[in-house]
Design a protein that fits this description.
The protein has 182 residues and is α/β, with parallel strands linked by helices. It contains nine helices and four strands, in the order βαβαβαβαααααα.
């Protein structure tokens, strides 16, 4: 991105008015909205999310909403790649990209250039790790991670089972610790 090309980010907690502000701002600045919400990417996740209405979606172009099926895995790495492409497209049309959402890790990955390893999910491995956590406890998995990747383990709470399993999965597939892969 050139120094003259700007993007706007609207983020905050749930129900803080991000979507409404993003739509009003997009109309004012001739912008287009890229959702940074980890649940809005999934089709049919309409309950428990503040998915924009059909009217709101038609008022201003929106991206990264309803793009994958619920059974598919969508990671921060995938978000970074797709959102970066959308930003380039929006800028090429002379419009203002507006990132709006509350998934901080997605926004951080996009804006701070986190180098997130693109490792395909291993569903069998994930299931075996979940079963292990059920049998021996979540702390057991956290200890496994601490032994192999203390740097990543320090950043994750023992109850953050999803990220612990993902770190172990990346390690298994990439052959190096998540902290090294990043």
């Amino acid at each position: 991105m050139k120094n003259t090309e700007k993007i706007l980010v609207i983020t905050g907690p749930t129900a803080s008015g991000k979507s409404d502000l993003a739509i009003k701002t997009a109309k004012l600045l001739d912008g287009e909205i890229i959702s940074a919400d980890s649940r809005l990417v999934y089709r049919d996740f309409n309950i428990g999310t503040a998915k924009p209405s059909a009217e709101e979606l038609s008022a201003v172009p929106h991206y990264m909403i309803d793009i994958v099926h619920p059974e598919e895995t969508f990671t921060a790495g995938i978000f970074k790649k797709r959102a970066s492409e959308k930003i380039k497209e929006i800028l090429s049309r002379g419009k203002v990209p507006i990132i709006a959402g509350g998934t901080g890790f997605y926004i951080k990955a996009l804006l701070e250039g986190l180098d997130i390893p693109e490792v395909e999910p291993d569903i069998d491995f994930r299931n075996s790790m979940r079963k292990l956590a059920e049998e021996k406890g979540r702390e057991y998995l956290h200890n496994m991670l601490r032994e192999s990747d203390p740097e990543t383990a320090k950043k994750l709470h023992k109850n953050d089972i999803f990220r612990i399993i993902r770190a172990l999965e990346v390690q298994k597939i990439a052959g190096k610790a998540m902290s090294e892969a990043q």
